[in-house]
Design a protein that fits this description.
This protein is mainly α and 213 residues long. The chain is 51% helix and 11% strand. The chain has two domains: 22-81, Helix Hairpins, CATH 1.10.287.990; 93-209, Iron/manganese superoxide dismutase, C-terminal domain (minor pseudopilin epsh fold). Helix 1 (22-53) runs antiparallel to helix 2 and helix 4 packs antiparallel against helix 6 (179-186).
Length: 213
Amino acid sequence: MATYTLPELPYDYAALEPVINPQIIELHHDKHHAAYVKGANDTLEQLEEARDKEAWGAINGLQKNLAFHLSGHILHSIYWHNMTGDGGGEPLAADGVGDLADAITESFGSFAGFKSQLTKAAATTQGSGWGVLAYEPVSGKLIVEQVYDHQGNVGQGSVPVLVFDAWEHAFYLQYKNQKVDFIEAMWAVVNWQDVAERYAAAKERADVLLLAP
């Protein structure tokens, strides 16, 4: 039995229009995300075979493949729930996400400063990658990370709570080579309730992440 499975979308293909058209959502989820799930499961099988045979000649490549495909699966699983057709704006206490709003202000000075940093981080990622808002448990604050591929340039222990996919397959059919336009449009579909719940969960688990007694 496969270890990882492709999650169902929490909405239909057309739910994020006009920011993301249905064709992109269908291809992105059913083809690209599915490929990362398959890649992670295939790599686990290859590692099991290597253990059985004590054949470790390909270990470096297998470990890299596992990190790549598994991280791709996890980030995409967050990505789908980070978006909603009636999202956007900014987190406000009146909407029940005051803790997140306060944390953003404390960590970045203002929502505008945070929005500008994450937009630039995602839009200027070289090659393929992500812009990520993550909870960093050592400082207890939120940070922005510019993730290369799916797993590079990540602070150890940080927990992603909001992710912007900056790979070309996320936008090219609709936005062509205008990655900046896509990232700016993404703010209109951010599901702040989902982000706030992920932030709260990350804070609750901080003692585990820090290996506290």
